Design the sequence.
């Protein structure tokens, strides 16, 4: 799961980031309007935490852009402004939730998980496909009710494939989703190949009834056997 924190207050931004990293999320940040606009224009996120008061811009204007591109339903507004008008406008623009500062990180995390369940898993904590059960909250995989150990990246890759079954996933899209904007520092996609190779081996050894097919020169596709 990839989350973008749009917040100009350094201490709060870093506190939220560290907390979400501990929850095994891929986390990116933006501290001003221009950076945030660039990120949401280029990348897709499972959840966006959006402050209203930003340097060089207003978060509600950014929310209008997200609504125009169909990306506003996964936004949680985090703001020091406890204004009813701002709440009404934010929710009308498609924001999923509105949290007033100061707040407890535990409450924010709970709201993020609720957004992710509604957006990606139809309110459920697990994805069930063929003879697999992927538990998103516990980050576990069961195949034929037997636990299969996955490292963090393998879990995130499988989660992404299961959420996009039968869709062609390009190497670039997969890398951006699992590694975030740090992917810009990579020279090639060899690291994806090795993670996919290890994941395939574990799935085959567990007799999983799915396969990750290579579409040469483009990427991968998950299909049921």
Sequence:
């Amino acid at each position: 799961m990839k989350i973008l924190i749009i917040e100009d207050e350094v201490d709060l931004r870093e506190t939220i980031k560290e907390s979400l990293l501990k929850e095994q999320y891929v986390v990116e940040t933006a501290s001003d309007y221009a950076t945030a606009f660039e990120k949401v224009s280029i990348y897709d996120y499972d959840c966006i935490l959006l402050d209203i008061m930003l340097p060089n811009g207003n978060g509600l204007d950014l929310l209008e852009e997200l609504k125009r591109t169909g990306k506003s339903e996964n936004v949680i507004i985090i703001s020091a402004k406890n204004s009813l008008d701002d709440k009404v406008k934010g929710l009308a623009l498609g924001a999923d939730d509105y949290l007033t500062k100061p707040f407890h990180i535990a409450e924010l995390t709970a709201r993020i998980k609720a957004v992710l369940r509604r957006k990606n898993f139809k309110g459920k904590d697990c994805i069930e496909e063929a003879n697999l059960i992927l538990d998103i909250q516990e980050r576990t995989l069961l195949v034929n009710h037997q636990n299969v150990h996955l490292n963090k990246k393998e879990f995130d890759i499988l989660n992404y494939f299961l959420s996009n079954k039968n869709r062609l996933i390009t190497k670039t899209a997969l890398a951006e989703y699992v590694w975030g904007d740090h992917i810009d520092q990579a020279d090639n996609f060899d690291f994806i190949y090795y993670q996919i190779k290890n994941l395939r081996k574990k799935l085959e050894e567990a007799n999983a009834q799915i396969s990750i097919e290579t579409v040469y020169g483009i990427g991968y596709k998950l299909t049921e056997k």
In short: DSSP finds eight helices and 14 strands in the chain. The mean pLDDT is 87.
